[in-house]
Write a sequence for this structure.
């Protein structure tokens, strides 16, 4: 057994008079404990405030790498994100000014990048992020998910770190599908529409919610986790099909030029109408005023033009063509295209009117036979060129 005089701090070598903790093979003094704590505290502070170091321009620059076009919407969202996390910082400093939450609603046709924008921001800020579907939610007491279930998903992706979850982002998709079914009061409860909107109000504004860890319905005697939603950023997205007609009727009852059959004109007209959206248009669509008030930032995504679809297909960081080329490279397959094939994919996507999803669907049909045939081959190297002859032979809807 060692003499007490031999006991020294294993970190700084100070003698036993200052030893605070002693183990079987190591010791640590008070001074080193304090120093370790300050290091850990500094690391946690840096980690927790990582997203405070960015300006709106930084956020938009990152979005530009992954989301093609939509400059106006990206500026609005970048400012909203910046305001939200600065608000958290100022509140942590206990300033006297109370800054309201800056939740966001994104409006745009399917396949224009609503979900991609939310995902890209969360990844950039390195914070917990989850997506939920508003169509699965119902008012408490009815078949479906309680609104609290969206918080359960955020807890899950946060690995049940409550403090981390309380500064995350929740993207609520298909928010337009819970619009009021009609403007007139009905004796039939709108449990998956207005009822859900009412249930979302407190969560979006900021409150302490008892959340079932595994989601689903709450029941008596169930263990729950308390989660404060005050600093959780909510981004709601929806296509709001028909919102352009509501805007048109508000601006003028006799709009000239809208409704022309030409695809390019339809896109141009939609984009010019929706940029004039005001909160009252959302109320006319079926969102209740209280919910609209909790979504102060309205970002509108334009329908994708032929030029934007071409950039998404070919030139963007995560272009669909690059994705397929990467998949095929794993099997030592090189793929190339005629320019006419790329034009065909873009024009077909315009016909489908599904944005990026249309591009993906057409490319899936083109590549099914190629991947099935050549990925199963024992040939070491395959160089494949796709022209319109191949398209006519393999795609029945040309």
């Amino acid at each position: 057994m060692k003499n007490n005089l031999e006991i020294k701090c294993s970190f700084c070598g100070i003698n036993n008079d200052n030893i605070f903790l002693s183990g079987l093979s190591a010791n640590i003094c008070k001074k080193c404990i304090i120093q370790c704590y300050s290091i850990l505290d500094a690391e946690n502070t840096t980690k927790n405030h990582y997203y405070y170091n960015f300006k709106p321009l930084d956020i938009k620059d990152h979005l530009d790498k992954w989301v093609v076009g939509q400059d106006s919407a990206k500026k609005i969202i970048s400012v909203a994100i910046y305001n939200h996390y600065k608000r958290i910082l100022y509140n942590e400093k206990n300033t006297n000014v109370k800054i309201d939450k800056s939740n966001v609603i994104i409006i745009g046709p399917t396949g224009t990048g609503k979900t991609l924008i939310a995902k890209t921001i969360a990844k950039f800020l390195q914070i917990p992020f989850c997506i939920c579907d508003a169509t699965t939610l119902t008012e408490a007491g009815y078949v479906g998910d309680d609104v609290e279930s969206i918080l359960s998903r955020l807890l899950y992706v946060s690995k049940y770190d409550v403090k981390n979850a309380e500064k995350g982002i929740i993207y609520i998709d298909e928010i337009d599908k819970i619009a009021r079914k009609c403007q007139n009061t009905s004796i039939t409860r709108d449990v998956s529409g207005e009822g859900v909107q009412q249930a979302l109000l407190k969560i979006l504004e900021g409150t302490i919610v008892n959340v079932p860890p595994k989601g689903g319905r709450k029941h008596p005697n169930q263990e729950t986790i308390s989660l404060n939603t005050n600093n959780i950023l909510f981004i709601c997205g929806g296509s709001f099909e028909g919102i352009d007609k509501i805007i048109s009727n508000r601006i003028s009852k006799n709009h000239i030029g809208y409704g022309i059959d030409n695809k390019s004109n339809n896109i141009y007209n939609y984009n010019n109408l929706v940029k004039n959206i005001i909160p009252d248009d959302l109320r006319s669509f079926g969102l209740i005023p209280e919910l609209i008030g909790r979504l102060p930032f309205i970002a509108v995504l334009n329908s994708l033009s032929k030029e934007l679809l071409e950039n998404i297909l070919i030139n963007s960081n995560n272009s669909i063509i690059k994705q397929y080329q990467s998949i095929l490279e794993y099997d030592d397959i090189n793929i190339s295209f005629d320019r006419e094939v790329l034009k065909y994919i873009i024009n077909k996507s315009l016909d489908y009117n599904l944005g990026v999803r249309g591009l993906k669907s057409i490319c899936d049909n083109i590549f099914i036979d190629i991947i099935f045939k050549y990925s199963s081959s024992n040939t070491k190297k395959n160089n494949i060129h796709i022209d319109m002859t191949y398209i006519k032979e393999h795609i029945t809807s040309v």
Summary: Residues 112 and 340 are 24 Å apart (CA to CA). Residues 185-189, 257-264 have pLDDT under 50 and may be disordered.
